[in-house]
Automatic annotation (TrEMBL):
MF GO annotations: carbonate dehydratase activity; zinc ion binding
UniProt domain Alpha-carbonic anhydrase: residue ranges: 20-282
Annotated EC: 4.2.1.1
Metal-binding listed as a keyword: yes
InterPro entries for the chain: CA_dom, CA_dom_sf, Carbonic_anhydrase_a-class, Carbonic_anhydrase_a-class_CS
Protein name: Carbonic anhydrase
Any Gene Ontology CC annotation: plasma membrane
Main function: Reversible hydration of carbon dioxide.
Organism listed in the record: Paramormyrops kingsleyae
SUPFAM superfamilies xref list: Carbonic anhydrase
Enzyme class: lyase
Keywords assigned: Glycoprotein, Lyase, Metal-binding, Signal, Zinc
Annotated Pfam families: Carb_anhydrase
Amino acid sequence: MNFWRSLFFFVVFIEKSIAADFCYEDSHCSPNSWGNSFAQCRPRTDSRQSPINLDSKMTRNESLRPLDLQGFDAAPSGNWTLKNNGHTVMLDVNGLSVSGGGLPGSYQAQQLHFHWGSSSTNGSEHTVNGRRYPMEMHIVTMKTTDQNLTSALNDTSGLAVLGVFIDVADQDNNNFSAISDLVASVKYKGTTLPISPFPLISLLPVRNMSQYYRYHGSLTTPPCSEAVMWTVYEVPIYVSQKQIDAFTSGVYYTEDGANKALLRNNFRDVQARASRALYASRDARLLPDSSTPLSSSHLSLALPLLPLLAAWRL
Ligand SMILES: [Zn+2]
């Protein structure tokens, strides 16, 4: 009897563990079913979920100046840890803080991680006018007045996440090699690698730090807590295809073993923005002139070209 009782509780325990986990590509735990286990992931009319599409319907906010990034210029002392948690490749960091740029307080950096697609698809979480970049990096910071993560997740501005788009270029990005060269060492779920801290500014679009978008949203993974002040930088950093392939073709969401499966497309689809405000920093540039709707300006440019385009088709 005791055996069957133990077995029953063991099965219940396993089922609960599976239900409480999440994934991207298996239907039983993919983003569409996150809401079954995590209430805040369920779409509601008043949701403030992330990511979103960043489009021209935004408001310029002249008071949004560059964020004050403390400790990013130097290599902090101590150790950082790179790890594969089965959902992403994550770098636990310390010694860095973020304030200014309209953020309501000072925030301590906790970790950064990546979202990517596959060998044939892009995988950023935010999109810009519907365009998805190859990858996106998130630097997750927690408000210093929140005692712990639980308290931060219950604070509507408990976390500030810096989002950086990653685009492809011909050349390797030597700064990015500090991560991409080490991804192969954490290819399986549960593996970790201590690494020496380096100046984190080297992973940011340093010449364009005053250009960003700001909105109030959520974690893009369960429990989808609506506790995030998002800063998404407008200009991407550039890395080589080989450096992107290190993620799309070299990371597994399974542990080392026979049934290994690649971690791909670890991004959540864009969520409804509804009536939420989306702000552009003082220096953001990609906003089309609000007096000239994007569609009509494109049309007026395209019209004189129509005979040419027709000729090309012949
Ligand atoms: Zn993320």
